[in-house]
Backbone:
């Protein structure tokens, strides 16, 4: 049964997304890039870091940078509380922690339910938004993490060398 | 996995091997003469025998062994696998399968059935009962087959014997008989050669009579277990040439007395042998049929048994030799305890990833242990409880585990040193110099990552030493030196670090020219008053090159400063000492591992940072009177009457907007590249600690001023300061990542 289900979902271009909330907006990312979800712990600030990098935390021995998604998406910087969560996601070869207010949903959608992003002037939104989902009365913006953290921006320094 | 599981796997494999065996035999039966098919059949039986031996299934081993011996004859084309032969073999395969089933499920195969087949197989192997057409051909391997598997019996009385008369009636053209005298020396055994194997190889060439010469065998009490006492006299009849006979002893010929002489075919009688009465000539006259027992076959079987007993005697002789060789080896191993430590038998190959995983886990363990200790101390008021004692022991244990795990990664520097000798040869050729590389302490061990990373700077330095250090042969002769220059590369352990020295006996540093060059390149002011040591160290300054001509070999003046940076990036230091006319010595001191680092844990603007201990010269508490403002926002601190720029770490790393008051903090006096000193201002020192280095680049990116990260006892990440980058930033250089050696050329 599971096989036929998989075939069916593949044929319809179905995918699973994880939705999270920042302020009064909802966003979602592909569930395949999410490794785990954990609570907020105090991060060690990094010198010379962009404003949206909260710092780094210890993820079972690995150094995990924490990205303030609110600041990264152009909204006001987050003031993390114990209720905030970190979505540990794999972006290309790197693992990053995304600080969000809450994880709100896990969605199974088909590609045809994704509406295109309307023409907007802001470059930032154009850069990361890949579509808009209408679930009940909610609007959820589909984000492409790779576009948000291009390898190039991460490796800016080493490229200069 | 317990024994039964392993046994189960063995039986599963047996099933596969039996299937392989049967299909192979059937292919042969259909006329397939592909050697690979024969090999497959042989391998199948051999695997079953090997596995059965490991489980002590003697019945199975015994039968498989006989089967295998016969198959070996087919494999070496001594036995033609015709229908009759294959009939026996297919039957044997069935018995083998039954024996496997019995070994697994209990029960037993009828002994008469097994024994009958064993006899038939042995007869085939010994070439006694094949059909007439095959007789002369099959008769040859008489000695070969049994001698080839000297594993059956163990006896200790060597019995000289001969196969007199055997094969004499063959009508053979171009058969030669050689008298071979073979007397191994003790070196033959000490080099791991084995007389029995050589004799076995020899026996494959043709029909062989062998006699063991035991004249030199002393009495038991005066016997030296490592010595070689036996010699052999062999008479071999073979179509091969004398050279081919000698080729058997190719790898042993320096360690034995060997004489190969062509004789008449009937020269056998001259050998001092005890003939074993035994005549097979009747068999050649009347073809024997396997399928239908006849009186002749009975005779053949009897004869086969004689052959067998003779073969056993050979085995006994051979085994005695093997035993003495084993004793030799054992004694050698004991004598050579030091060498044995590095011998192959005592090492295992392990995937590097597994070791790294273990190291990471142990790193976690260390952090966890520290976290545990910290929280116990925080919650335990009296501080004398048994928990504390237990924790202390745990701490010691974890430290020991960590050290042991690190030792797994340690490798001798030998491979890198070996690479250097090639570079010396190549570069010396290119520049027309005669240079000898002497290496010392090649077995000094250091972490594999360090080894990987020193190769590049070391190559650079070696090239420099060859290009600039050593003079041309003419100049050397004019200076009264050996025209051949010497570069000495040595490694040794010193106080928890590895010290690598590169010494050349060249002209040494020409201080006048170095100084002039530095002035020309605006590195120093013309009236600077520098000590010899300071001048020598100018060669490490960025953008300095002394060679008048830029050569392909030592680069474009980025050489030594890049070398210094790479060494420092490894947490090491490099220094030079030079004596004019006598040569220069570069000394590198490197940490034994890159996985841990001894650091000073400090507080800066509320953040915890780790400063590598190797960079710190001293720590001091600045007094207000020692701080002097200099220019707009520079400050200097006077230390013993010299002025040293003060660097506020918190300001450089952007942790605070304004400079802190130096009097409130602690100054770490650090030595930076170029030899200059800086005083790094931090708020407080928490203590000294060994920390596990974690990469920042893995998930984030290189951060200017930060070398790496670590995880402290409270589970939080602390950053490790990149002292050179911080000092560089204080000089107004932008904090950019280090140039790599590769990019700099």
Residues:
């Amino acid at each position: 049964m599971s096989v036929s289900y998989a075939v069916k979902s593949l044929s319809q271009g179905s995918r699973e997304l994880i939705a999270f909330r920042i302020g009064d907006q909802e966003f979602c990312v592909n569930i395949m890039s999410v490794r785990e979800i954990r609570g907020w712990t105090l991060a060690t600030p990094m010198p010379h870091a962009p404003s949206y990098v909260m710092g780094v935390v210890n993820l079972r021995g690995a150094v995990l940078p924490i990205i303030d998604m609110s600041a990264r998406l152009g909204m006001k910087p987050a003031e993390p509380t114990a209720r905030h969560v970190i979505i540990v996601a794999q972006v290309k070869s790197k693992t990053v922690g995304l600080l969000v207010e809450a994880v709100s949903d896990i969605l199974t959608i088909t590609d045809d339910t994704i509406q295109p992003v309307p023409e907007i002037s802001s470059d930032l939104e154009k850069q990361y938004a890949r579509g808009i989902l209408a679930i009940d009365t909610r609007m959820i913006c589909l984000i492409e993490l790779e576009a948000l953290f291009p390898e190039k921006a991460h490796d800016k320094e080493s490229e200069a060398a | 996995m317990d024994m039964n599981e392993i046994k189960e796997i063995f039986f599963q494999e047996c099933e596969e091997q039996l299937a392989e065996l049967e299909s192979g035999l059937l292919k042969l039966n259909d006329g397939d003469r592909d050697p690979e098919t024969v090999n497959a059949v042989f391998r199948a039986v051999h695997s079953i025998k090997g596995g059965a031996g490991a489980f002590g299934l003697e019945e199975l081993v015994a039968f498989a062994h006989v089967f295998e011996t016969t198959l070996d004859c087919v494999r070496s084309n001594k036995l033609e696998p015709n229908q009759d032969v294959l009939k026996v073999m297919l039957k044997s395969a069935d018995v083998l399968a039954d024996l496997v089933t019995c070994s697994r499920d209990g029960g037993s195969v009828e002994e008469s059935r097994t024994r009958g087949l064993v006899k038939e197989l042995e007869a085939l192997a010994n070439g006694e009962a094949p059909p007439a057409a095959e007789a002369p051909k099959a008769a040859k391997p008489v000695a070969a087959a049994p001698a080839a598997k000297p594993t059956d019996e163990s006896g200790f009385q060597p019995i000289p014997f001969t196969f007199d008369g055997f094969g004499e009636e063959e009508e053979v053209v171009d058969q030669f008989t050689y008298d071979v005298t073979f007397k191994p020396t003790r070196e033959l055994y000490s080099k791991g050669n084995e007389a029995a194997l050589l004799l076995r190889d020899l026996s494959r060439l043709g029909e062989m009579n062998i006699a063991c010469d035991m004249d030199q065998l002393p009495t038991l009490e005066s016997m030296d277990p490592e010595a070689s006492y036996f010699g052999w006299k062999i008479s071999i009849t073979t179509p091969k040439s004398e050279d081919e006979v000698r080729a058997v002893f190719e790898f042993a010929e320096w360690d034995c007395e060997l004489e190969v002489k062509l004789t008449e075919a009937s020269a056998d009688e001259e050998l001092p042998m005890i003939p074993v009465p035994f005549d097979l000539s009747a068999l050649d006259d009347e073809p024997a049929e396997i399928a239908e027992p006849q009186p002749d076959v009975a005779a053949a079987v009897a004869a086969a048994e004689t052959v067998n007993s003779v073969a056993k005697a050979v085995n006994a002789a051979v085994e005695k030799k093997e035993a003495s060789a084993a004793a030799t080896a054992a004694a050698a191993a004991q004598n050579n305890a030091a060498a044995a430590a590095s011998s192959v038998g005592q090492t295992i190959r392990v995937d590097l990833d597994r070791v790294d995983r273990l190291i990471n886990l142990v790193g976690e363990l260390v952090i966890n242990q520290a976290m545990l200790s910290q929280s116990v101390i925080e919650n335990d008021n009296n501080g004398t409880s048994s928990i504390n004692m237990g924790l202390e022991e745990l701490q010691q244990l974890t430290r020991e585990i960590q050290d042991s795990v690190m030792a797994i990664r340690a490798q001798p520097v030998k491979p890198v040193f070996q690479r250097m000798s090639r570079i010396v040869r190549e570069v010396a050729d290119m520049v027309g110099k005669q240079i000898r590389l002497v290496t010392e302490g090649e077995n000094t061990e250091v972490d594999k990552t360090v080894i990987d990373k020193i190769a590049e700077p070391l190559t650079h330095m070696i090239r420099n030493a060859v290009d600039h250090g050593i003079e041309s042969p003419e100049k050397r002769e004019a200076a009264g030196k050996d025209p051949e220059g010497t570069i000495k590369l040595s490694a040794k352990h010193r106080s928890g670090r590895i010290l690598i020295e590169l010494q050349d006996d060249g002209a040494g540093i020409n201080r006048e020219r170095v100084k002039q060059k530095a002035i020309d390149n605006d590195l120093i002011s013309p009236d600077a008053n520098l000590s010899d040591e300071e001048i020598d160290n100018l060669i490490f300054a960025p953008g300095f090159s002394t060679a008048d001509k830029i050569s392909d070999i030592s680069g474009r003046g980025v050489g030594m400063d890049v070398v210094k940076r790479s060494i420092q990036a490894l947490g090491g230091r490099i220094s030079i000492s030079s004596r004019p006319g006598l040569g220069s010595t570069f000394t590198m001191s490197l940490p034994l591992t890159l996985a841990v680092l001894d650091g000073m844990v400090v507080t800066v603007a509320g953040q915890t940072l780790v400063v590598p201990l190797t960079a710190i010269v001293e720590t001091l508490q600045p007094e207000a009177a020692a701080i002097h403002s200099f220019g707009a926002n520079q400050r200097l601190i006077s230390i013993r009457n010299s002025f040293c720029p003060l660097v506020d770490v918190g300001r450089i790393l952007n942790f605070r907007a304004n400079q802190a008051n130096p009097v409130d903090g602690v100054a770490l006096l650090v030595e930076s590249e170029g030899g200059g000193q800086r005083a790094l201002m931090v708020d407080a020192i928490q203590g000294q600690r060994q920390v596990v280095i974690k990469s920042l680049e893995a998930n984030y990116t290189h951060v200017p001023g930060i070398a790496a990260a670590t995880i402290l006892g409270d589970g939080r990440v602390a950053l490790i300061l990149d002292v050179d980058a911080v000092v560089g930033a204080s000089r107004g250089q932008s904090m950019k990542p280090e140039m790599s050696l590769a990019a700099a050329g």
Notes: Helices of chain A lie at 2-11, 69-72, 123-128, 145-148, 151-154, 156-160. Chain A touches chain B through 29 residues (CB under 8 Å). Residues 114 and 133 of chain A are 5 Å apart (CA to CA). Chain A has six helices and eleven strands.
